[in-house]
Amino acid sequence: MILLFYLFSFFIVASSGAILFVKNIVHCAFLLMITMLSISGIFILAGADFLAIAQIMIYIGGILILILFGIMLTQRNNINQVPISNFRTSITSILIIGLVFTMLITIIFKLDSESLINQRQELIASSSISQIGFLLMTQNLIAFELIGILLMVALMGAAMIAAQFQDKPIHANSSHE
Amino acid sequence: MNEIPTTYFLFLAAFLFSIGLAIVISKKNIILILMGIELMLNAGNINLVVFSRSDTSMIQGQLLALFVLIIAAIEASIALALVVLIYKHFNTLELDELNKYKN
Amino acid sequence: MIALLIILPSILLFVVIGVWAERKISAFVQDRYGPMEIGYYGIFQTIADLLKMLQKEDILPTKADKPLFLIAPIIIFTSIFAGYAVLPISPDIIGSSAKVGVFYMLTIISLDVVGLLMAGWGSNNKFAIIGAIRAVAQIISYEIPLTLSVLSVVMICQTLDLQEISYQQGIWINWNATSNLEANYLFGIKALNIDTTQIGGIFTWNIFRFPLLMVSFIIFFIASLAEANRAPFDLPEAESELVGGYHTEYSGFRWGLFMLAEYAMMLLVAFMGAILFLGSWNTPFPNIGSLALANWTSGSPGTFLGNIVGFSWLLIKTLLIVYLQMLIRWTYPRLRVDQLMHLCWKILTPIALGIVFIASIWRLMMI
Amino acid sequence: MNLSNHTIFIIATLNLVLPLISFFILIFFAKKIARKGDWLGTAFLGINVLLSVILLLDLKFSSITNQQFLFPMDWFSLGSNSFRISFLINNISILMLIMVNTISFLVHLYSIEYMKGKRNYERYFPYLGIFTFAMIGIVLSNNLLLTFMFWELVGFSSYLLIGFWFDKEAAVKASKKAFLFNRIGDIGFLLALLIIYINFHSFEIEEIKKGFSLSFQNHALPLWISLAGLGFFAACVGKSAQFPLQIWLPDAMEGPTPVSALIHAATMVAAGVYLMIKVNFLLSPEVKIFIAFTGATTAFIGAVPALFQNDIKKVLAYSTISQLGYMVMGIGFESYLPSFFHLITHAFFKACLFLSVGAIIHAMHHIKHDLFLSGDYYDFDAQDMRYMGGFYKKMPIAFIAFIFSSFALIGIPLFSGALSKEILLETSLQWAQANAKNGAIFFYMIPILAYSTLLITTVYMFRQIFLIFFNKFRLAEIDPKAENIFNKLKENHWLINIPLLLLTLFSSFIVYSYNPLDASKGWLLQWIGNGQLATHFSIIPLLLIVSGVLIALYRKKALLNNLEYFKIHKNSNTPNFIKSIRNDWNMDALYYHTLVKSGFTVSHWISKIDSRILDRLINFIAVVNVIFAHLLHWIDRYIIDGILNLIIRVTKLTGYIARSIQSGKLQNYIVFLFAFIALIFIIIYYSSEA
After folding, report:
1. What three-state secondary structure class fits D212?
2. What pLDDT was estimated at residue D526?
3. What is the DSSP code (8-state) at residue C31?
4. Partners of C287 in the β-ladder
5. CA distance to partner chain C, nearest, from residue A53 (Å)
6. How far apart are the first and last CA of chain C?
7. ipTM surpasses cut 0.90
8. Helix (H) or strand (E) holding D651
9. Residue A167: its pLDDT value, please?
10. Pick from D415, D406, D407: which is nearest to D353 by CA?
């Protein structure tokens, strides 16, 4: 169990860290896939099996594909030319990230470990799916409905924007700019 | 079944969050920044799921994480549609380039 | 572990036989012989082809994105093979009896999509990328009716666990239960008051528990064809337009992996169809009074016989579906892209949605 | 014929509104309408005449005697006070209405021919319309404030019409003079209105009457009310050209002749008298005596200059002043009905006089025009009687009209003036007798002035008749060519003659009374006054008239001889006092020397004080100010500005720093966001630690 955790953690750390340094944006996207898969593994280890599958479904089946499509539609001219961030921004970002990371770690160390004891062990053994379904349909029904509406509206909006893009004759290529 | 300590997950999430933040701050491509944002959201999700283990009766953490997932999907769909549109208009996705069109 | 040991060889075997069967079926459809030379009725033709293929040079295009190009076929095959993990192949043998089995199966297909994109992009070939994009668009679109039709089954069965779904469709419905015994009724309607729990057979299959699932099964079948990029939905690899689609640049063993993945996918969706709609590993024969055909044609779970018989029934059903897939491939013309989308969004999806809706009401009549 | 109240109200309102409509139509669209819309205005007035005749008949033959209709309506509300206005229709106002409408209509008709081809023709008829509207407003209104408004409107339209030929300097000056003199009276009106409102909280005459009878039934009138009455009388003095404000009226003759006929003879000047009749209950006995004296004085003072006038219209103007004096005198005697009666008769015969004189002037203008066409331009005054003569043969209708109406003016029996004037003269004598009982002989001054005015009137009217109609055409003596033209002169157009003939009819006794010698039994006085006046015909006026005629005949040669001097010397050897009398007793000069000059002197001194003392003081203050300002400037420049500049610099610096943060780059914002989160965390962390 703990070994699996270390394995997934390693994948997460390695792949997400690699995104920072890899210059090919498509590779970044596939590294992201590995990260997501590993995160879903972490979810399973944390006892959220439904969420893990949902993670794969939404992130890999949805968002990652969208990102890849975005990349493919926009990177045809300069496939491998992701500009490297300049020195100043690197320094500031390293500083900031170091600060934030230190902060988070400090907070975690300060946490009261007593309160973090896993109190749902017997539940984790089984699946959380029926409970999620039950809660979604009772206590969180409004949120559930609202997010459904929101999702539909967003998809329609995205389709509208994309349709706009299609209607326009492609003239924005270099000659004008 | 030896239980994985909660703090391990938290460390992982903190790391993931920092990486996401780093990507958001340092990268210049909009799509990469989006990826960074997704990573940060995932870090949050890990925390939610893990804290949900300490919840005796409910699994509110998991529910919230589920909603976060859906919101992330919405955000990504809209954002990528916009990205495509931006690319069509300016023929670039580099923030520094786009900054020229600010005015 | 047993499941892996059974499934992996059987997939390989299936591919070998499947390719031969395909050729034979196409020959049958086109009223010719097909491969006849090697082995009895050319049964070893595929093995010969396989040997030839393995000897081929593994070509890596210069401008290709090397890591993506190399990893893509592996990811595709792995993801599809991962789908077999939750497949119950007999009352006892299952890779992982995950509670979210159906969901997992559907999810795995998304991973396949990523692999396709990697292959298309990595080849740095315009046929490949167009093929990949077509494939992805098609797969993502047909995931909707597929998922909806599966969802209607889930509505009736009230579980995502494939093994549990399997148990529900036969006489062993209460095998594992210690309390609150479940019961099956004719057409799932309790009001009819015809208890089919011990009759079993075809009467307890899902398409009988909720007859509209027959329609749902057809939708599932059509969508699964599209998911597997099979004709008449083989636009991503339409030879006349795109040469070889996303695997244009592949050769040798890696091309073999694609082939393997395709047939594995066929088999996987066929398994799924059989499990979800056609009673899984349950016998089709019902107990009619003292003529206990169901009991006679299925061993009780936990016994060796039971597993063997169950696996046989499942395999028969699955192979029938595969046969149907192949027959369709060689009889139906390919769809245009707009027809493809029209079929998906304007015909299948609304019907599937309607069935989900009705299923949710039907379920209320079952309890 | 009994019309319902509603119908009467509608007819009255129509009467009021029709001229206004004609005004609005003509002022905006006259140029676009055929004949510049003269027919439209005339037609509207014709309808008005018909309507007022209907009203008259209705009232005259209604079963109720002395019927009156009051039409109150709410005008506007101020707070809780709703302000009401009302129309009053009784026998007096209906007679006024008939008079105003008829004369206005006839003048309209007359003007169509008389004003034909004159410049600004399109403006003439709208002006007449607005004047008629205002006049009818005064007649109908039973509300003092409303009356005042119409009163001012009358003054304004009179101003417009006097200055109708605004390119003539004299006309402009005359119009201004008339306007300003009217204002003096109007101040009295306004003050009176204020007093009335303070005392009675209303402008409604009916309500004032009610309040008045409640408060002062058997008491002497308080001073305030007397003053109010005096104020109204001041308004009357201004409008009706009473002494000492009468001098605007002769100058007003600069307006077109029909206008003079309508406004400065018949209607507007009568408004003052009409107002006095309306508010007579406010007049205290002292005020009445004052009014009587003023009226008598005006009658006399107006009559004398007429003796010496050469301008054909000015004679009539002075006679108007004189006759108005009679009316006002009548008010002073409390004999309102005779005054009103005289007002009516005077209106008709004076209009007739003016119109017939207008016919003569029209002819003279023709002659002047033809002379100009024959190439011999000779600039002479077409209104100067000394050039006229012998017109009776050429223009018999004008002659008859003039003779009849002048006889009416003099008061010769059988003519309308005799009926009304007789009563006034008689009353003056009775009044003097009544007042002089206590030995106050000076009250006899009034009958003496009145009777002597009668004599003078006879003389100047006969003089005018001689000058215009008899003898020979004197212009021909100066310019022989005029003889031919004069001989070819024809009778005037029927549009001029028909009004003349109609007015001539109205100048005869028959319209007012069947008894030519006693009007008190006539229908008019019977109707309006219930025949309470018991007057008898006396011989004195008749004797005076006969002697006046004799004097005129005797002095005929002398009067005509005047012309010989005129031919050569042009007025040179006229005695000074006659000159001064001719110039209205030199009152213009008097006003100039007393009021204007003293005003100038005072203002001169004031300006001296201004420049010597005030200016220096101000200069000194200014210098001090400048010094102070310099000081302030220094403070401003170096201290306040310095602080301000410091603030600006600091702000600039801050802004520069802040701007560098606000780069518009999202990533920078995120950096700052997290940096600050970390900062806050550190602060909280270490503070909780400690």
Report:
1. helix
2. 72
3. T
4. C292
5. 6
6. 37
7. no
8. helix D641-661
9. 53
10. D406
Interface test with B, best of D665, D669, D672 (most B CBs within 10 A): D665
B62 part of a folded domain? yes
Contact D666 B102 (CB under 8 A): no
Quick one: D689 exposed, middle or buried, by C-beta within 10 A (0-12, 13-18, 19+)? exposed
Q: How many residues does chain A have?
A: 177
Q: Is the dihedral of CA D280, D184, D143, D25 positive or negative?
A: positive
Which residues of chain C make contact with A65, given a CB cutoff of 8 A?
110, 113-114, 117, 136, 140
Euclidean distance between CA atoms D505 and D404, whole angstroms:
9
Position D532 scores a pLDDT of: 55
Sign of the CA dihedral running D557, D562, D566, D569: positive
- Please answer whether residues D255 and D264 qualify as being in contact, where contact means their C-beta atoms are separated by less than 8 angstroms: yes
Q: CA of C4 to nearest chain A CA: how many angstroms apart?
A: 20
C133 to chain A, any CB pair closer than 8 A? The answer is: yes
Q: What is the pLDDT of residues B65-95, one digit of tens each?
A: 889 989 898 988 888 888 888 887 777 777 7
Question: What confidence score (pLDDT) does residue D653 get?
Answer: 92
Q: Is B63 a domain residue?
A: yes
Which sequence spans correspond to the domains of chain C? Answer: 1-55, 65-366
C62 CB contacts (<8 Å, ≥6 apart)? none
D288-323 tens-digit pLDDT: 888 888 888 888 888 888 888 878 888 888 888 888
pTM of the model: 0.53
Of D64, A28, D320, residue with least CA distance to C118: A28
Q: End-to-end CA distance of chain D: give it in Å, rounded.
A: 113
Q: What is the pLDDT of residues C244-289, one digit of tens each?
A: 677 777 877 888 888 888 888 888 889 888 888 888 888 888 888 7
Indicate the number of domains in chain B.
1
> Which amino acid makes up residue D179?
F
Chain D residues within 8 angstroms (CB to CB) of chain A: 667, 671, 674-675, 677-678, 681-682, 685
Q: Do chains B and C touch (3 or more CB pairs under 8 A)?
A: no
Residues of D within 8 A of A89 (CB-CB) are 667
Nearest to D86 by CA among D46, D137, D17, D18: D137
Touching subunits for chain C (3+ Cβ pairs under 8 A): A
In a 3-state reduction of DSSP, which class is residue C128?
Answer: helix
Residue type, B18: S
Residue B1 lies in a domain: no
Other beta carbons within 10 Å of A146: 12
A177/B91 touch (CB, cutoff 8 Å), yes or no: yes
CB contact under 8 A, D664 and B24: no
Distance CA A151, CA C340 (A): 25
Give the structural domain span for B59.
6-100
Residue D665 to residue B24, Cβ atoms within 8 A? no
Q: Which of A4-13, B46-55, C18-27 has the lowest average pLDDT?
A: B46-55
CA distance D535 to D420: 11
* DSSP E strand boundaries for D519-662: none
Render pLDDT for A61-101 as a digit per residue (tens, 0 to 9): 888 888 888 888 777 655 555 555 566 667 777 888 888 88
Task: Give the pLDDT mean for A34-56.
Answer: 86
Question: Mutual orientation of helices D223-239 and D144-162 as an angle, nearest 10°?
Answer: 20
- Pairwise CA distance, residues C226 & C229, whole Å: 5
Cross-chain Cβ contact A96/D677 below 8 Å: no
| Residue A114 neighbours by CB under 8 Å, 6+ apart | none
Question: What CATH number has the domain bearing residue B19?
Answer: 1.10.287.3510
Nearest to A161 among B28, B76, B81 (CB): B81
d(CA C219, CA C350): 11
Chain B positions touching D671 (Cβ under 8 A) are 25
* Contact between residue D500 and residue D261 where contact means Cβ atoms under 8 Å apart: no
Determine whether the interchain pair A129/C111 forms a contact, defined as Cβ–Cβ distance below 8 Å.
no
